[in-house]
Every structure is written in C-alpha cells, then in structure tokens.
C-alpha cells in the first residue's frame, strides 16, 4: 500500500488511500446497519470481521483470548474477547512462543462468576491497553429486579444461557423473600465483580448514567456503584458524569446533524444523577464544571473526553472502567473516541493506518459489542454517526494525551530548528498517514496568519509525573465535587444561545493549531498562506473522511428538511467522489 505524503499546501495526497480498505469499511457498515451481532448466530461475513479484528490487534500487541464461543458468557460480546497483555516489539513478532503475563484460566473464571452482577450480563471487559493500564467497558450494575429475574429465568430454566434481549421478570419489591435475600445475593455477585475489577487493576469508574437507578414500570431494574447501599465499591474512585442517552441523538439528527447549540434538558423527572468528580480531577483542566448543564453536546463531549484522558494519565498504574446502562450506546461512543484519540497521538495501535483503526473501532467497539444500529437508525438516534463526525472537534493538541510527556522529554532548543524543520516535525513523527486529497478544503481550512501546526495551547494536564511502575493502593474515599440540577431560571440565563460561543463551534475548533515548541519562550514564525495540519489533526481528519465516505455510500444521512445550502449532501457527495465510493443511498 502506498504511503500518503504531505502536499505543498499542508494536506495529504490521495495516493495513500486504499480503495479496497475503504470498501471493506463500507461493507462492514452496510452489514452493521442491517444486523445486530449475536454471538450464537454468526455468518461467514461476521466470521471474516472477527478474524480481521484479531489481525489488527496482532499488529501491535500480544494478547490472550477470553472465550465466549457461543455467547455462553455474554450473548452480545465478541466470541473471542481480546485481552491485551503488552505491546509487541519486532523481537516479539519474530518469536514463536507467546509469553503470557496473565492466568487466562483464572480470568475466565472471574468473568464467568461476575457476569451476573451487571445489566444483561455485560461484565467488566478490558478493551484498550494504554501505558500498561486497562481501559474497560461494561454495563451498569444489575438491580434486584433484573438480577432476580435473570437468576430465576435465564440461569436456571435456560441452563445458564444469556439472551440479552429477554426482559427481566419483575419481582414485587415488598416480597419478604426479596428483602431477606437481597443483601446476601448482592454480596456474592457484586463481590465477584469487585474481584474482577481488582484483577484488572481498575481503580476509576466513570458512570455515564443520568439517573441513579434505571426505573421501568415503577421498579428499580438496574443500579449503579454510586448508590450501592452497602458501599461495596468504596475503595474505588467513582465519578458520576451524566451524559444524554441514545434518545437525545434523535434531536441531533433532526437538527440536520448539528450538535452546536444542542443542550440536554436536565430538568426531566428521571434525571437525578448529579455530576460528581473527585476534587483532584477538577483542578487542572481549566473547565468550569458548575456550568455543565448549560453545555451543548459538543462542549459536553469535549470536556468529558478531556476528563477521561486526564484520568488515564494520572500518576499511578490504575485502570479505568467506563459504562452507561446497557453499555452499548454511550459506552462505545467514549471508548471509540478514547481509542481514536490515543491512536492519533501514536500511543496505541501505532502500526495501524487510518482505514485500519477505523475498521477496528467500528467492528470491535461497536458491532461485536452489540450496538443496535438497525434499531437506532429506525428511530433516528444517530449516536454512531455522531461519534465519528465528532472527530473534527478533537483534532487540537489540547486533547493529546502525550503533550506533557513530549514537552517533558524534549531536550532540544528552539535554535536547533529552522522554521521549515518545525513545520515538518509533526509529519515525520510516527508511521505513515493515509488521507484524502487536499481538494477537501472544507476539512483543511486556510488560517490567515498561521504557518505551522501545534501552537502551544494551555496544557491540559497537571505537572504530575507519568505512571510509575509501582502499584498504588486504592485510596479511601477522596474529596468529591458534586453539582446538582440548576434552577430553571439559572439554566435559561446560562443557555449557550445567550453567551459567546466557545471552542465547541466547528468554525473555531481549528484556531489553536501551531507548533509544539521544545523550549518555553515564544517563537515568532513568518506567515504563510495555508496552515500545515499537525500529525494528530491529519490522522483524525483522515479517519473522519473515510468514515463519511463509507457511511454516505451505505446508510446515508436523512435530513429532516431540505437544506437551503445543500451543505450536508454536498459535503458527503464530495467524500464519496474522493474515495471512489458512489452509492444509491443519497441524502433524503
């Protein structure tokens, strides 16, 4: 495959784009849009997707497999769940024998025992390995309604099988047997869940639910670590970061896929989970967390991603768990953004090209973990599309997890580089970049007065050192900062429409591109006609461009009303032409 090369204008030429790989992505999305993955109902097309995912993981990692061959552990988890153990070197790749660092039989046993603790059996599952830390996903904790229902139905009468589409049998809460047996059963199943979390060295748990407990028909069906009455999860650092569910993304679609200015209604009756973050994570992000209910969808997603990146860069070797309710909408959104953001920095999956990392995150993080894309599309809840279209909002170095490390390790002086060296520094960082041609001026915009990428923005992270090799014991309950619902009048006064727009707008999200400097003093550079994108920006834009082309040729976008400017259809038509993918699913 030909590598992409920087053009004179700072973009990337189309020569590096593999049409075949883009067609594979289009084929993947086409299948995904028609079928929800079930581990016990696998076709040859799905088998090919599973095999391709393993090949892509194998490029950079040595891994073991948690077996789920017929969905016996979880019906909507991959049949071969990848447990990443360590990054592989050239020597490792040439070595025949795999030196495992984990007791996979013990891990398999912990998984099997802990699955009952979480909604729909979606147990804590490691999916990303970053600096030796596991980033995990799961559903929330099963409440007594689901737990007793699944215990009595799925695990007894169905011989232990787990059909995640089966609704829990509802048991009256005032039943004495329920009240008397609840504590003992919860001690057992949640105890296994905690053992699995500790085995994976997970310390931080980020809960995206906007409610404390999920209530259906007046019954508490699911629960959450943050409201566990027995405080079983007190040794973990719990973060309540409420984020709108998939239903909210119908509003996104109905606004012609415009997230700017779209604010969630926090005054709905079922919304009772406040934003609660440990104080030490609120001090160094330059974010006014008290205004979270006034943020639009762009700013909220940006700030939550910054928080997650800040957590995984904390000065210990502890892992992170991210979950919502069922773990198949909001959870893959942030897992996918984390994977892509870290990849854009060269911190994970360093040997994958844009088309390959896109294939991996769609196939593994979304499809094989059971996202119900056909159902979401039928309802207009386009959270899947939002995820990849959102990449344009995180191209800035402010979202780079490695900025601090690069600045800390740099031993060069500004005088060691010419202006041209600085402009080309990022394009020589790591690996080849695959992107579309520089004809896509909608993506690579000219910035008057800018000459080079990576101007030094405000540092995202604190001055804490990187993760050490020693294991830090879990701390007792840390200081927490919690924000509850606003007064409706306050919310009206703080609505984004009544204040100046921040970096959430698409027109301003590229204003902070400049040169990453080795020293601390400013460096004046001459003005050029067009800015050169940073390596991070070019990578993420390439992924987004490939996605838009594949999506437009398969699913397509459906505007709620004809756009006077034809902006949506015109944009996607350009992408479709640019990569040679022309489909019949035009924008309607």
Characteristic key phrases:
single chain, 588 residues, alpha/beta, five-stranded mixed sheet, two-stranded antiparallel ribbon, 11 strands, 10% strand, globular, disordered C terminus
Description:
The protein has 588 residues and is α/β, with parallel strands linked by helices. It is built from 17 helices and eleven strands. The chain has a domain at 60-353. The protein has helices spanning 19-32, 44-58, 90-94, 104-114, 144-157, 176-199, 248-254, 297-312, 330-344, 354-367, 373-379, 383-389, 403-409, 419-425, 488-493, 535-554, 567-578, and strands spanning 61-67, 80-87, 125-130, 133-138, 202-207, 214-216, 219-222, 237-240, 275-278, 319-323, 480-483. β6 and β7 form a beta hairpin. α1 packs parallel to α10 (354-367), α2 packs across α10 and α10 packs across α16 (535-554). The radius of gyration is 24 Å and the shape is globular. Residues 1-17, 151-174, 407-477, 485-529 and 576-588 have low confidence and may be disordered.
């Amino acid at each position: 495959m030909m590598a992409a090369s920087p053009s004179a204008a700072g973009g990337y030429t189309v020569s590096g784009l593999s049409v075949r790989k883009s067609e594979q992505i289009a084929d993947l999305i086409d299948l995904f849009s028609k079928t929800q993955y079930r581990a016990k109902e696998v076709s040859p097309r799905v088998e090919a997707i599973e095999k391709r995912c393993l090949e892509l993981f194998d490029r950079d990692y040595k891994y073991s497999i948690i077996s789920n061959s017929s969905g016996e552990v979880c019906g909507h988890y991959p049949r071969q769940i990848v447990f990443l153990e360590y990054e592989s070197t050239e020597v490792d790749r040439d070595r025949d024998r795999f030196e495992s660092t984990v007791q996979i039989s013990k891990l398999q046993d912990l998984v099997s025992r802990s699955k009952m603790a979480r909604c729909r059996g979606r147990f804590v599952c490691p999916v990303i390995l970053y600096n030796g830390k596991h980033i995990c996903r799961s559903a929330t904790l099963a409440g007594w309604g689901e737990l007793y229902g699944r215990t009595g139905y799925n695990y007894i009468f169905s011989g232990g099988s787990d059909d995640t589409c089966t609704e829990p049998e509802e048991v009256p809460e005032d039943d004495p047997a329920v009240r008397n047996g609840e504590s003992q059963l919860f001690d057992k199943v949640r105890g296994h869940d905690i053992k699995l979390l500790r085995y994976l060295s997970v310390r931080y748990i980020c809960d995206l639910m906007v409610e404390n407990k999920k209530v259906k028909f007046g019954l508490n069906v699911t629960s959450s670590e943050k409201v566990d009455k027995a405080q079983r999860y007190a040794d973990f650092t719990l973060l309540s970061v409420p984020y709108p569910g998939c239903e909210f993304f119908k509003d996104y679609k109905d606004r012609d896929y415009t997230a700017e200015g779209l604010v969630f209604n926090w005054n709905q009756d079922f919304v009772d989970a406040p934003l609660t973050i440990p104080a030490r994570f609120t001090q160094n992000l330059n974010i006014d967390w008290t205004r979270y209910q006034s943020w639009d969808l762009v700013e909220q997603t940006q700030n939550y991603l910054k928080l997650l990146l800040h957590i995984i860069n904390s000065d210990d070797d502890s892992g992170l768990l991210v979950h919502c309710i069922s773990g198949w909408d909001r959870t893959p959104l942030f897992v996918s953004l984390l994977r892509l953001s870290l990849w854009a920095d060269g911190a994970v999956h360093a040997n994958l090209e844009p088309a390959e990392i896109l294939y991996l995150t769609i196939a593994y993080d979304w499809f094989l973990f059971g996202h119900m894309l056909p159902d979401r599309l039928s309802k207009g809840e386009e959270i899947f599309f939002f995820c990849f279209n959102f990449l344009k909002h995180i191209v800035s170095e402010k979202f780079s997890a490695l900025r601090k490390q690069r600045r800390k390790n740099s031993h060069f002086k500004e005088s060691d580089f010419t202006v041209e060296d600085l402009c080309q520094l990022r394009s020589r960082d790591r690996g080849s970049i695959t992107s579309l041609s520089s004809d896509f001026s909608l993506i690579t915009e000219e910035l008057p007065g800018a000459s080079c990428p990576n101007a030094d923005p405000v540092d995202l992270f604190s001055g804490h050192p990187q993760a050490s090799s020693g294991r830090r014991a879990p701390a007792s309950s840390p200081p927490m900062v919690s924000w509850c619902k606003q007064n409706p009048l306050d919310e009206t006064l703080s609505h984004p429409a009544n204040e100046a727009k921040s970096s959430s707008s698409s027109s301003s999200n590229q204003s902070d591109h400049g040169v990453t400097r080795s020293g601390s003093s400013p460096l004046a550079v001459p003005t050029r006609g067009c800015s050169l994108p940073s390596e991070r920006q070019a990578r993420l834009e390439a992924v987004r461009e490939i996605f838009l082309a594949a999506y437009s040729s398969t699913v397509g976008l459906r505007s709620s009303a004809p756009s006077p400017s034809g902006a949506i259809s015109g944009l996607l038509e350009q992408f479709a032409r640019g990569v040679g993918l022309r489909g019949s699913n035009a924008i309607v």
